[in-house]
Amino acid sequence: MAESVRRLLGRPGSVSLQPYTKLLKTIEEREEALRALSDAELTEAAAELGNAELPYDRSDLTELCALGREAARRTLGERPFDTQLIGVMALLDGHVAEMATGEGKTLTGALAAAGFALRGQRVHVLSVNDYLARRDAEWMGPLYRLLGVEVGWIGQESTTEERRAAYAADITYASVSELGFDVLRDRLATDPADLVVPEPNVAIIDEADSVLVDEARVPLVLAGAAEPAESDAAMAELVRKLRPGIDYRVDDDGRNVHLTDAGIDAVEKALGGVDLYSAEDTTLLSRVNLALHAHALLQRDVHYVVRDGKVRLINESRGRIALLQRWPDGLQAAVEAKEHLAASETGEVLDSITVQSLVLRYPIRCGMTGTAMAVAEQLREFYELEVAVIPPNKPNIRVDEEDRLYATAEEKEDALVEKVAEVHATGRPILIGTQDVAESERLAKRLERAGLECVVLNAKNDADEAAVIAEAGTYGRITVSTQMAGRGTDIRLGGSDMKDRDRVVATGGLYVIGYGRYPSSRLDDQLRGRAGRQGDPGGSVFYVSVEDDLITNNVPEARGYRVSSADGEITDPAWRQTVNHAQRIAEGQLLELHRNTWRYNKLIDVQRSVVLEHRRAVLHDNLGSRQLAVDCPATYEELVEQVGEEEVARAARLVTLYHLDRGWTDHNAFLADLREGIHLRFLGRRDPLDEFNRDAVPAFKGFLDEARARAAEMFAELKVVDGRLDVAGAGVKRPSTTWTYMVQDQPFSTDFENIVGRVKNLVGRD
């Protein structure tokens, strides 16, 4: 009934499965005949599907699913369920298939990828991490080979040649961030032979909600090395002495921190009686804000870890180390100073891309996840995707208990440890989901003190994740893990070999405990979904306290709860609604972050596309050479005569690309500064987004003409050295190294806060 109503109203999640279910009988009828084929004959039959165009007609669709089912049976020992085939058909029609954990999304995605590839489409299967990309590509490799298609995969450590080879395959597995950074690096290529990523055709997104929603809040930013950074150890020591709540306060959402009047006085006194808000030294306030942000908002083992003498960022949505990622300059150095580490080199932003822009490059896009309906509106709004809810192969019999709510974090932890001891005594395997590294390690130590041995999985040992997760269903096992989204490995009752399956089933199956509700109900559901796979028994419960960040950050004014037991438990139904309300507020804030990222990048994408199209013509069509022949005719003729047309064309290309890229880097910096302070326009009752567009459009006017003029000026000064044009000597330089930034909107104090601070300071002195 609900599905029919959604379809009637045109709401997301309204994709009807009836056209697919009607084909299941025909698919099954083909099974016996296909089993009689040799492997070579089956490969040939699959190749015949490539004789038509997309989309598949119904007869070809049934043949593809039948061939895929038989190929999977032969190569993987798995006969796809009917529900998996329905998922395949939904993906081939360009939808997001919602399939519960354990329902076989990996095989479903592989069969759909093969279906697209057999029709001549280049397919990129995008996941949330490198581990899953490699695992799935290797796992599904035999299936692909039998169907006559090639597969490759890309990881953070893949070389340029390995990347080029992987992208040349019919199907390429990669994390969304690796693909994005390859696209960004290609935008800096100065020779067509250096390009790595081919033209996009089809994107199949695994864990679609994590990639398209969670990852989309953080733009992918490529930066290039500029110069060594200076450590601001003195400022780190200064803010370390400030008193929280007295000298500085953190905003309710935990994203900003600001000095109080007392803090301003303390800092100015410590710095020798300076005026922080004086126009004489505008960098001083920025240094204070950076050090304070690093001290108060960025927590070790929550936002980053220190490994091998370096600050390593933790990707909050994945719970893993984010290799080659760092904060914007100044903030990175501030964290390094906080941890008494040498400052790494600074850099400048070369280019950036949002997940929306990256995915919308693909004419055909689809995906799969266990929790799509909760973000169906966003999938439609940002990606023009509809959700097809695929029923489970077997009914879900997991028992989800009501949240246990406590007055304090300590009482919550006491009750949770007591519950773990009680359940563990029965031999029932337990999976505890935490939200950060520090939380997981603190809880593990508490469990150990209680005589409860556990295995911990977090960003410090994420290389072991497959083995840890695979054994989480072992009899008597206690596993403590940070973010479970995208972990990928199934938790089988009885362990990976399932030898104790019956004994674990008798205990009630895997018991999932959430150490606090997440900022998103989807993450709650992803954790719960680890229990009860494929009709297994299981259970789940979440322990929450009034002191949890979810509550204090989103409903800090909530008071008046009634403690109804000696252990601090709150059973007041109204307070359960308060927890749900806090989560809805958090989800709204995350949506607004996503929406703001999208809104502000729409215009930037338009401007970037103009630059990229011009760059493509320079790179492939000798546009730079033709322009410089017109702009510098005398110089151009003289240099052909001296070194030949091919060498002049090379130099013209490098010079033109340098000034295009240099200009875009500078324009990017202007847009970032504009974005940072644009909310000030709100004080004049003007819309910040309109104001951003109003300033950004004229700033871009004449961009190409200016880049062309600068290229002509440099070209006219080129010298011939050893028979070649010395472009490096003329000033053409490329960054020696690149890295990626993790950025959030307004990561530290804004111009508005600085102005307010200045006003407060002046008033205080009067």
From TrEMBL:
SecA family profile domain spans which residues? Answer: 2-572
The source's superkingdom equals Bacteria
Residues covered by the Helicase C-terminal domain: 412-574
Sorted keywords for this record are: ATP-binding, Cell membrane, Cytoplasm, Membrane, Nucleotide-binding, Protein transport, Translocase, Translocation, Transport
Provide the catalytic activity annotation.
ATP + H2O + cellular proteinSide 1 = ADP + phosphate + cellular proteinSide 2
- Mention any Pfam family matching this sequence: P-loop_SecA
Which GO terms are recorded in the biological process aspect for this UniProt protein? Answer: intracellular protein transmembrane transport; protein import; protein targeting; protein transport by the Sec complex
- EC numbers for this chain: 7.4.2.8
By its UniProt entry, which SUPFAM superfamilies does this protein fall under?
A: Helical scaffold and wing domains of SecA, P-loop containing nucleoside triphosphate hydrolases, Pre-protein crosslinking domain of SecA
Q: Name the residues that bind ATP.
A: Q84, G102, E103, G104, K105, T106, D490
- Decide whether keyword Cell membrane is in the record: yes
Where is this chain's protein located in or outside the cell?
Cell membrane; Cytoplasm; Membrane
Answer yes or no on keyword Membrane.
yes
Q: Which GO terms describe its molecular function?
A: ATP binding; protein-exporting ATPase activity
Query: What does the protein in this record do?
Result: Part of the Sec protein translocase complex. Interacts with the SecYEG preprotein conducting channel. Has a central role in coupling the hydrolysis of ATP to the transfer of proteins into and across the cell membrane, serving as an ATP-driven molecular motor driving the stepwise translocation of polypeptide chains across the membrane.
Its quaternary organisation is: Monomer and homodimer. Part of the essential Sec protein translocation apparatus which comprises SecA, SecYEG and auxiliary proteins SecDF. Other proteins may also be involved.
Annotated family: Belongs to the SecA family.
The record's section on PANTHER family has: CHLOROPLAST PROTEIN-TRANSPORTING ATPASE (PTHR30612:SF0), SECA INNER MEMBRANE COMPONENT OF SEC PROTEIN SECRETION SYSTEM (PTHR30612)
HAMAP family reported in the protein's UniProt record: SecA
Q: What is this protein called?
A: Protein translocase subunit SecA
What is the scientific name of the source organism?
Answer: Thermobifida cellulosilytica TB100
Question: What broad taxonomic lineage does this protein's source fall under?
Answer: Bacteria, Bacillati, Actinomycetota, Actinomycetes, Streptosporangiales
